[in-house]
Design goal:
It contains 1 helix and 10 strands; from the N terminus they run αββββββββββ. By secondary structure, it is mainly beta. The strands form 2 sheets. An 8-stranded antiparallel beta barrel has the order 1-2-3-4-5-6-7-10. A two-stranded antiparallel sheet has the order 8-9. The radius of gyration is 19 Å and the shape is globular.
């Protein structure tokens, strides 16, 4: 009897974890590109209901590439999180805040005043701006 109770508890626990799993908005990897003067950027995103993750690469003249991962939360039309990347010519990864605004089928890369709280970088909310964005990402073809 005790074995049956344990098995039933295990099944209930497994079902509760499965029901908590977040559903994807899209099952495919979304790809975007952006250009600014001689610089360019590539963004790959996996979107869920409240979270996102993906890869981001910045290309500059002379073969300089910053490459890393983005992750964070989705709130309405804003994706906010961090960019954990290898800067060109640097041996260690760096972490910076990251924010995108979805406008139609494009994503606008925002900026602001950076602050680190308990080791987590973020933009001070009142300073976030999308007005003079260096990169506006459009769907890659």
């Amino acid at each position: 009897m005790r074995l049956i109770t344990f098995a039933a508890y295990f099944v209930l626990l497994a079902l509760s974890f499965a029901s908590c799993e977040e559903k994807r908005r899209d099952t495919e990897l979304l790809r975007y590109v952006a250009f600014s003067n001689r610089d360019s950027a590539q963004l790959e995103l996996n979107l869920f209901e409240r979270r996102f993750h993906g890869k981001l690469r910045f290309y500059r003249p002379g073969g300089e590439i910053d490459s890393g991962e983005v992750q964070g939360n989705i709130k309405n039309d804003t994706l906010a999180g961090d960019y954990y990347y290898f800067p060109f010519g640097w041996g260690q990864k760096k972490r910076r805040p990251f924010v995108l605004l979805k406008k139609g089928s494009q994503y606008i890369l925002g900026s602001g005043t950076e602050q680190v709280y308990m080791g987590i970088p973020h933009y001070i909310p009142s300073t976030i701006s999308f007005q003079q964005a260096k990169f506006i990402f459009s769907e890659a073809r």
